[in-house]
Amino acid sequence: MSALKRRGQSGLHRRLKYSNRENRKSNPEPAVQTWLQLPRGNKIILPPRFRHENVRAADSLVEYCINKYSEEGEVVFDPFAGYGTTLVIAQELGRAGYGIEFSEQKARYVQELLEHPEHLIHGDSRNLSDYDLPLIDLCLTSPPYTNEIDDENPFVDYRKKGFDYPSYLREMGHIFSQVSPKLNPSAHVVIEVSNLKKKGHVTTLAWDIAREVSKILRFEGEEIICWEEYGYGYNHSYCLVFSKKES
Ligand SMILES: C[S@@+](CC[C@H](N)C(=O)[O-])C[C@H]1O[C@@H](n2cnc3c(N)ncnc32)[C@H](O)[C@@H]1O
Predict the structure, then answer these.
(1) Tell me: the pLDDT tens digits for 8-61?
(2) Residue ranges per structural domain of the chain
(3) How far is ligand 1, taken at its centre, from the CA of residue 145, in Å?
(4) Going by C-beta distance under 8 Å and a sequence separation of 6 or more, which residues neighbour residue 44?
(5) 199: Cβ contacts below 8 Å, ≥ 6 apart
(6) Atom 7, ligand 1: which residue's CA is nearest?
(7) What is the distance between the alpha carbons of residues 165 and 184, in angstroms, rounded to a whole number?
(8) Hey, which of 101, 158, 179 would you mutate to test ligand 1's pocket, going by the most ligand atoms within 8 Å of its Cβ?
(9) Residue of minimum CA distance from atom 27 in ligand 1
(10) b/e map of 57-92 (b: 16 or more CB within 10 Å)?
(11) Tens digits of per-residue pLDDT, 185-243?
């Protein structure tokens, strides 16, 4: 007979109640905000040439993160700038937005939206330490996605095959190890990402990125963002929140 059956439900219940109470006493840290429900959408309408691939982060989330993790005048950086949502909203909120984007078409488009076009670098975040960037107060990003099934390299616009998931995670670690020395001591790094379901297979992308980046930065916790509509087999994503590890 199992220990649970022998002791009975009420015994287990008493033990859990006791350990939760003890846990609260020994761990008085305030809980991070654990979940949020936000509307999707972006106020900028993409030109028709880009509409087939609208992978933008929602304005609501970017606004929320910038307000929560940075102050006016501070530097907000996105190593996977895409269509520039982070940089444009940073600019609107009085922050200095910087970013790197691999696709030349997207980079040129974003530069047209910025008061300081030179703040968006057309480049490759795998070589982030080569670029002249100011010290960062908030690194806010959503990475290019991949899963355990496909073999196109997401770091070169999915144009090359023969790539695998462990290499993806290693590259991600390599990129954030180059972000780390560029962070102000009190900076935060927030990565929005979801797990993925494809052909009945789940890739725990969000959890794997959290584990990989935790080797470099201090993981502070996650916020679950609930969306009315999403994709990838889920209707929630995660904001993984990190700070600089004390050296
Ligand atoms: C999920 S999208 C980011 C979307 C962005 N948050 C927005 O709101 O538009 C990821 C972006 O990373 C870019 N990217 C992929 N590999 C890159 C690399 N090696 N260096 C810089 N950018 C890269 C892709 O071209 C893509 O635009």
Answers:
(1) 556 656 655 555 666 666 666 666 778 999 999 999 999 999 988 889 999 999
(2) 1-30, 35-243
(3) 9
(4) 83, 88, 113
(5) 149
(6) 56
(7) 31
(8) 101
(9) 82
(10) bbbbbbbbbbeebbeeebbbbbbbbbbbbbbbbbbe
(11) 999 999 999 999 988 899 999 999 999 999 999 999 999 999 988 888 899 999 999 99
Which fold, 35-243?
Rossmann fold (3.40.50)
* Residue 70 Cβ contacting ligand 1 at under 6 Å: no
Asked if 179 contacts 243 with a C-beta cutoff of 8 angstroms, the reply is: no
Residue 8's H or E segment, with its range, is helix 3-26
Task: Please check whether residue 128 is in contact with residue 79, taking contact to mean a CB–CB distance below 8 angstroms.
Answer: yes
Q: pTM, whole model, 2 decimals?
A: 0.90
Mutate to test the pocket of ligand 1, among 55, 76, 80, 193 (most ligand atoms within 8 A of CB): 80
